[in-house]
Amino acid sequence: MKRLSPDSNRIIPILAAFALCMGMGMDRIAFGGPVDPATYQSATVCAGCHPEIYRTWLSSQHATAFTDPSFQLPYDRIRRSTPGKTLACERCHNPMRFLLAPGDPRAAIFAQEGVTCDFCHSVESASASGPFPRYRTKPGIKYGPRGGKPGKSFHLTKFSRLYIVSDFCGGCHEFKNQFGVSILATYSEWAESFYRGEGVHCQFCHLPQLFDARFIDPVGNKGPLDHAMVGGHSRERLARAIPVRATLKISGSEAVLRIQLKNELVGHKTPSGIPTHRLRLASTLFDASGNPIGRKDELIERVLGDGTGKPLEKPELIFTVAKEVLKDNRIGPKETREITQVFQLGNGKPATAEIALTYELATPDIAPGLRMIEIPISRAVIPVKHGVSAVIVALIALAAVVALLAAAFFLRRRVASTET
Ligand code: HEC
Ligand code: HEC
Ligand code: HEC
Ligand code: HEC
Ligand code: HEC
User: Fold this and answer.
1) Residue 321 to residue 305: CA distance in whole angstroms
2) What's the pTM?
């Protein structure tokens, strides 16, 4: 029983799904018709037996790749200006469209599911570059990282090595436009990094075990994988991935802030992917009474231009008309970026500097008034003294708190024992 399903609360959904497949209310699942294992299925069918995976996928950007307003609005502008051009976008944002015969009524359901289970799990071969289609698929057999014994599930399963390597993701996470400008290069950034040599593929970081699998499978240690595939939208992930250190020194009439930003755990450049994402490093200098006496900002980003030096902001233009790279100061895998910010001192006497790292998403469409969605990553206060690093300061503070707590504890114990 234990090995029957890769998901946690498995027995009931499996029985339910089998019951459904056996004819009881068959028409409730899968597009109003019986489940035919030899055709592509909606994610809601998979949900019956893979509930945890379904739940995490539902929260992913893959699930909303087509319906998300941040995609729909630029897509709609292309549709109105150059209708034929939208198909190119759907290759990656609505991939099921190309697997169905024209006029198939299931197309509308699949569009709601964006990059859905049965697209990813029907892939026989993939290529990370070149013309579309980049994926060759076959319905019916579910390809995956483990394979299974025949007869254990209602669908066939087959092991495919492709599922554990980056090339699988590369077909969608790599794109050059007709001018040869690289729009998405996450795959090649990874391929040029040391992670490739180490055999650390996208899946290692983006499809972790959902929870300690030993609870449900003590022998194989195989549990469901987290399909949320979080990227830059996850704050905790970013804080761990890009640690910041800094020192602040006064020399003559200048305050010099030396910052080290390390791409510690990102398997490609940071930020990566579509150039509407960027990192902002903001430093503010404060005097002893906490008044700001200077501020400097550094943007870590890639900016594409239209060929005349004008930066492009709208996603559909970035994809279709970008002709040049105007700026690219993103941080490569394992690279440490040294940033020195020099503040000219007037009358104010600096006491601390605060540095804040923020992940910004341009939102010209989804929130027109608000130019950027800001995700704070980390914040550190650096005292002026002898350039003590923020980490050390935090450790000293922690040690002081622990010492205080310990002292308070022993004091209370002594008071209590003298009272009795
Ligand atoms: C009736 C229950 C049921 C439904 C519905 C179902 N699965 Fe499965 N699936 C299983 C079971 C059980 C296994 C484990 C198979 C084994 O170990 O032999 C499995 C395994 C898998 C695997 C693992 C293959 C591998 O190599 O690791 C994939 C991928 C998969 N299913 C995808 C899907 C997708 C996609 C759907 C929806 C189209 C789906 N499943 C619907 C029961 C189901
Ligand atoms: C973007 C592509 C993609 C989508 C969408 C996707 N998967 Fe997966 N899935 C993968 C890859 C890649 C692996 C293998 C990862 C590994 O082994 O490191 C995997 C692993 C699995 C496995 C085997 C491991 C396990 O957790 O038991 C199952 C079952 C599975 N997926 C089911 C599903 C279901 C059900 C859905 C939809 C709710 C889904 N997948 C959506 C790419 C995808
Ligand atoms: C069929 C195309 C397709 C495949 C295959 C695919 N992706 Fe994606 N992925 C997308 C699209 C499209 C988006 C953006 C969705 C949106 O926001 O509109 C995306 C978004 C993401 C994000 C979220 C990015 C962010 O900004 O937070 C991550 C992480 C990601 N994919 C990782 C992967 C990994 C890892 C794989 C391989 C296991 C993979 N993808 C396979 C199309 C794909
Ligand atoms: C060593 C771990 C690691 C590996 C390997 C890795 N990633 Fe990431 N990825 C991350 C982290 C951490 C983030 C969040 C930080 C960021 O966005 O820079 C991220 C972010 C992303 C994003 C969002 C980009 C952005 O800046 O908004 C996408 C898309 C993505 N990864 C896809 C992939 C794909 C595709 C691969 C394989 C070619 C891959 N990742 C390999 C760790 C990794
Ligand atoms: C080769 C596959 C591919 C093609 C073709 C493609 N995209 Fe994307 N798109 C992606 C991936 C992958 C992401 C996520 C990258 C990331 O998060 O960094 C993305 C992200 C986006 C985003 C940002 C969504 C968000 O939530 O921030 C928009 C908007 C977008 N694409 C619009 C388009 C439009 C419009 C077209 C057609 C002109 C298009 N895409 C063509 C793969 C593709």
Assistant:
1) 8
2) 0.88
